Each structure stands twice: as C-alpha cells, then as structure tokens.
Amino acid sequence: MKKIITLALLFSGICSFAQVTVGEKKFNPVRTDTIDGWEKGGLVNINFTQVSLTNWAAGGQNSISLAGFSSLFANYKQGKSTWDNTLVMQFGQVNQANAGFVKSDDRLQLTSKYGREAGNNWYYAALLDFQTQFTVGYNDPLNRKGRISDFMAPAYVLGALGMDYKPSSNFTVFVAPVTAKFTIVNDDSLAFRGEYGVQGYEVDANGTVTDFENTRMEIGGYLRLNYKKQIMENITYQTNLGLFSNYANNPQNIDVNWDNILNMKVNKYISASITTSLIYDDDVDIAVLKDDGTAATREDGSPEIGPRTQFKYVLGVGFAYTFGDK
Hints:
Strand content: over 45%
CATH topology: Outer membrane phospholipase (ompla), Chain C
Helix content: under 10%
Number of helices: 3
Number of strands: 18
CATH architecture: Beta Barrel
Mean pLDDT: 85
Order of helices and strands: HHEEEEEEEEEHEEEEEEEEE
CATH class: Mainly Beta
Largest sheet: 12 strands, antiparallel, barrel
Strand order of the largest sheet: 1-2-3-4-5-8-9-12-13-14-15-18
Distance between the termini: 36 Å
Number of domains: 1
C-alpha cells in the first residue's frame, strides 16, 4: 500500500513539474475560464470486437464484445464563482463460446465542484462526488450465481470542503481537510454479510445481536488531482487521482482511486483508447484465488480474504465522437 501512495504522489509531482517546464506559453495559455458562461462537451466511445473461428487448428473460441465509454462535462463561470460538473459512464458485455453475455465493465460517476476565487489561483471550494454501477454483478456470471454488486450496492457519496488550486484549466488540486464519505449498500443480502465495510449482522458470545446497516459514514481528509494534456495533435491524456483518509479508523490506510485515459484519434470518428483504473479501499475484502481459480485458505481452513489492490485495464478501438467546447 505504501508503494501505491508513493507512486501516486511521485506521479502527481511529475505532472506538476512537467506542466511548468514544457514552456511558458503552454503552461500559461489564454485562460478560457476567464470568460463568463457555460463550457460544455464530451467524448463518446463505442468499441466492438468479434472473433469467429472455423476449423482453426490452433484452437480458440468465438467471442463477441461490446463496450461503451462516455465522459461529459458542463462548467460554468460567473465573476469569481465557478461550477464544474463531470459525468463518466462505462458499460461493456462479452459473449465467449456462445455461453451468453456477461458484464465486463460497469461504472457510473458524477462529480460536481463549486468554487469561489480567493486569489493567486486558489478557490474556496465544495465538492460532491457520487459513484456506483448500473447493473448486478456475480461471482459466477455465466450461471448468475454469487451476487456481489448491483445498482446502489455499493454506492459511494463523498462531500468535501476545502481549497482548490487551479493554475490553468488543465490542472487542478483540491485539498479538503473536512470530508464526509458515505458507503451505501442498498441490498440487504450484501449488507447482512457486512460487505463493503458496512455493519453486518452479528451475534457475540453473550448472545447480543447487532443488526446490519445499509450505510456507513466516515469523516476524514481528501485530496483530488486532475490533469489533462494534449500530447500531440490527435493524442490526449487525462488522469484523475483521489486519496481519502479516515481520521477515526486506520488513517494511515489511505483509500486510492486513480483513473487514466489515453485517447488517440485516427480520424473524426475512429479512435483507439487505453483506460486504466487503480483502486485500494481498506474496507473492501477480496478473496485470494489460487492459480487454478479456487479460493485460498488459511491454516485454520477459513478463506483468505482482505483488502487488495484492484486494477483494471481496457484497450479499445472503435467509434469515437468528441463534441462541444475543447
């Protein structure tokens, strides 16, 4: 975990250093955010893949996959006030060997941030962030067994008050010493087991019953970094890093959410994209699997579970459309 935090902080420093040294004209462009009014736009990306094999001696399986990604923004400025809004949606399905379609990607995130200029590129700011997924997820998706997630199960709502540093429209650092994070598990079967850090159903040695809860609140500190860069004429890169520390419970175990998007346009409608997501949440227990796919166990025979670093990598080529303001 310390390696992850060190890597994230190092990456943030590199981004900041690069933005200063690339050149004064690039670092201090004409600030488009000085113009009052709305800036709106986004990116929609749809990727389709099909593999069809007939008498293929090397072996393999037929497969079809379809994945969609969209990132939308609507930002408003009036005088010294700013209001930035982003909506990210991802969903994908794959059908391998005609076994039926199963979910391969699923995400819904809405972020809204209000700022009031304080001077020298600093803003007093308040942020609201909401994350969940669209549909149900299973441990065994082919047989639809082992329900592990659903819409609003889990969902994360984060509200933060702090300061926002915006030296340019492409780079912001939001620091919030006062942050409330809510974890919502709107599925009683998952909440009963205490999934995603909520209080599960328990009976102690004295027979005292603790009923399960569907929500959990944490108070802590939050840091959010956003950086965008046009590497070349048709290549853009964006990274978003969020760090949260719970003051009351293991504050050294920092929750990490780190997303990266590299988009390469071939022409107006065709592009290739690489997206990665790295997550570490100290309250989410994940089972350790052996090489053969079976669950690993401890010496006492209990399953080996605990917090784990989660990583997702998606490479897609397909239809892409960018619209609105740059």
